[in-house]
């Protein structure tokens, strides 16, 4: 299916696989990021990534072997559970988002560590490297990973497109959504499920811990350039894809791990945009303020 | 309980005390995730010191790590104050970048050396009683001395800055205009958090530190309404978790920091359900439908 694309790129086959894979993950993360950033949930990804550890451990305990798909499924389930726990805590109205995220993050990470300790003591020879799942290895990508990423990404983007109006009103005016007849918890749940999907997509490439940056940095950069959500989503997706592709090429050339290169690239883009964006940038704001004082 | 068991409870309890004191202010300021960010951001500092000196767990390592922890909170504070980026997004931008830098440094210059990415200087409270230093002719666990000093420093800091800390937490503008140096105090708090976090990672491990910063404070927030009592309650929750967790770990023969963390989580859940006034079930029990007079 994607063979022709890999052949068409002026890169060696393994490099092409990495570049396409990281670009796809970058695009999906960038496009889904607004769901987190605009609702002050940027650190959701952080807690979900720490939550994956417990899921990986449980999946390993159940199957007794390191089958990548099964471990990823475990990671996805526990990331989603962590996310739902955060939303539930937030919705009780007793905690602010940051404290809710912090509590879920520490408890789920602790649970993961306890489970890993248990596995380590069981003496199963296959257990080595389980915690390596927190840090990705883009160089180990194969074509099958890209197909999987493309499929999951397509599902996520379809959901966003179909439910765009709902997501928009839920983002800016949750009260309106529930008055309009759609319970806000349902929208919350869908949005969170999509974010969990994005985190798990990133596990194989940039690593779960760095995924938080890929969800946030393109959105921050794109937010400086547009006010409209309908522009923000594709723009930040494109920025994410660009960072993913360029980072993939650079890391291949320099023999560096792809995840950190992509993340640093995305961070540089975000900081540049925060500083120099035409209207909302720091420089532009300072200049306006000076003009106002002078005038 | 053996002397080692007591030592583990005391070290964890002392750590819980200092973390809960600063963590309460972080929770009130909506910055509860700062310690977690610092735990990742210190990596480049550890690697740089390793590349320069070849040491992995020295005083220099702690200093290098602290430098990058402070860099993380400084970057966060700068981005936040520009007003362009929300507080949570600012944090999510800064710490992955520093963590990435650390991983790149390792893979470029230190791939031969064995540096566990997430646990280079991260100790484990289980072995804390075994690593001793000589103090006034006695063998004292290094962690006890370090956490003791850190706790003393934290208590002093909170007592000395009590009024400005409180004021800048609840009303930053008043703190600034009222001559209480709110901005400066906020920055002191951030630097103190970074420093305490690094010192504590070194002696008891990152997971326990992150947990102690957030969970007892969040629990206390559910239980009481005043800042002073919140600090006391948070510290108490920390000590109960340390004691209960250590006992549970011995009973079930599993990871001590793990069970301490889970105990703290369980206490949080209890408070969420049964806290006076605010508990989810308390409310339901109290609000049982009254027969309406006709």
Q: Can you tell me about this structure?
A:
- The complex is a heterodimer of chains A (295) and B (294).
- Chain A is an all-alpha fold and 295 residues long.
- Chain A has one domain (3-211).
- Chain A has helices at 3-8, 13-37, 44-63, 68-91, 97-122, 143-162, 164-172, 174-179, 184-203, 208-223, 229-254, 258-276, 282-294.
- In chain A, α6 packs antiparallel against α9, α10 packs parallel to α12 (258-276) and α11 packs across α12 (258-276).
- The radius of gyration of chain A is 20 Å and the shape is globular.
- With 294 residues, chain B is an all-alpha fold.
- Chain B has a single domain, classed as Orthogonal Bundle (ABC transporter involved in vitamin B12 uptake, BtuC).
- Chain B is built from 13 helices and 2 strands.
- Chain B has helices at 3-28, 34-41, 43-53, 59-81, 87-109, 142-160, 162-170, 172-177, 182-204, 206-223, 227-252, 256-274, 280-286; strands at 132-135, 138-141.
- A two-stranded antiparallel sheet of chain B has the order 1-2.
- In chain B, β1 and β2 (138-141) form a beta hairpin.
- In chain B, α1 packs antiparallel against α11 and α9 (182-204) packs across α10.
- The longest helix of chain B is centred in the N-terminal third of the chain and has 26 residues, at 3-28.
- Chain B is globular.
- Chain B starts with a helix and ends in an 8-residue tail after the last helix.
- Chains A and B meet through α5, α10 and α12 of A and α5, α10 and α12 of B.
């Amino acid at each position: 299916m994607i063979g022709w694309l890999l052949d068409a790129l002026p890169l060696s086959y393994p490099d092409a696989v990495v570049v396409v894979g990281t670009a796809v993950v970058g695009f999906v993360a960038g496009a889904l990021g607004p769901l987190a950033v605009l609702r002050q949930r940027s650190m959701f990804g952080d807690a979900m990534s720490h939550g994956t550890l417990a899921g990986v451990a449980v999946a390993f305990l159940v199957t007794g072997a390191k089958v990548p798909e099964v471990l990823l499924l475990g990671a996805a389930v526990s990331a989603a559970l962590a996310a739902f726990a955060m939303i539930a805590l937030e919705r009780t109205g007793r905690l602010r988002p940051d404290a809710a995220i912090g509590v879920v993050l520490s408890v789920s990470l602790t649970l993961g560590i306890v489970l890993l300790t248990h596995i380590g003591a069981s003496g199963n020879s296959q257990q080595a490297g389980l915690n390596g799942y927190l840090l990705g290895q883009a160089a180990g990508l194969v074509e099958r990973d890209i197909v999987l990423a493309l499929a999951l990404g397509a599902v996520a983007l379809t959901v966003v497109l179909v439910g765009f109006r709902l997501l928009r009103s839920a983002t800016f005016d949750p009260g309106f959504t529930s008055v309009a007849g759609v319970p806000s918890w349902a929208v919350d749940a869908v949005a969170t499920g999509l974010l969990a999907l994005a985190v798990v997509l990133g596990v194989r490439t940039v690593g779960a811990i760095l995924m938080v940056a890929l969800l946030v940095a393109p959105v921050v950069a794109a937010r400086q350039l547009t006010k409209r959500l309908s522009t923000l989503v594709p723009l930040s997706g494109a920025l994410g894809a660009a960072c993913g592709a360029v980072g993939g090429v650079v890391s291949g050339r320099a023999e560096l791990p792809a995840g950190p290169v992509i993340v640093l690239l995305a961070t540089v883009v975000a900081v540049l945009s925060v500083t120099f964006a035409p209207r909302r940038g720091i420089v532009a704001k300072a200049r306006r303020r000076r003009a106002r004082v002078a005038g | 309980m053996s002397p080692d068991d007591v030592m583990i409870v005391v070290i964890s309890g002392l750590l819980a005390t200092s973390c809960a004191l600063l963590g309460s202010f972080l929770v009130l300021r909506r910055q509860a995730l700062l310690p977690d960010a610092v735990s990742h951001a210190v990596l480049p500092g550890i690697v740089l010191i390793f590349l320069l000196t070849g040491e992995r767990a020295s005083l220099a390592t702690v200093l290098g790590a602290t430098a990058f922890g402070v860099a993380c909170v400084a970057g966060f504070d700068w981005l936040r104050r520009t007003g362009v980026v929300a507080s949570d997004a600012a944090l999510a931008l800064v710490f992955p970048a520093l963590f990435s830098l650390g991983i790149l440094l390792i893979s470029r210059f230190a791939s031969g050396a064995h540096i566990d990415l997430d646990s280079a200087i991260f100790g484990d409270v289980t072995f804390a009683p075994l690593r001793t230093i000589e103090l006034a002719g006695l063998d004292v666990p290094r962690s006890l001395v370090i956490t003791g000093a850190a706790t003393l420093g934290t208590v002093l800091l909170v007592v000395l800055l009590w009024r400005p800390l409180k004021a800048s937490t609840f009303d930053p503008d008043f703190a600034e205009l009222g001559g209480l140096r709110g901005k400066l105090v906020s920055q002191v708090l951030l630097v103190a958090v970074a420093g305490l976090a690094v010192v504590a990672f070194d002696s008891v491990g990152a997971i326990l530190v992150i947990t102690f910063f957030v969970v007892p404070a969040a629990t206390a927030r559910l239980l009481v309404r005043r800042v002073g009592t919140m600090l006391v309650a948070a510290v108490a929750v920390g000590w109960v978790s340390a004691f209960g967790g250590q006992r549970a770990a011995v009973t079930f023969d599993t990871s001590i920091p793990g069970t301490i963390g889970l105990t703290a989580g369980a206490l949080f859940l209890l408070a969420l359900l049964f806290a006076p006034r605010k508990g989810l079930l308390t409310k339901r029990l109290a609000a049982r439908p009254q027969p309406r007079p006709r």
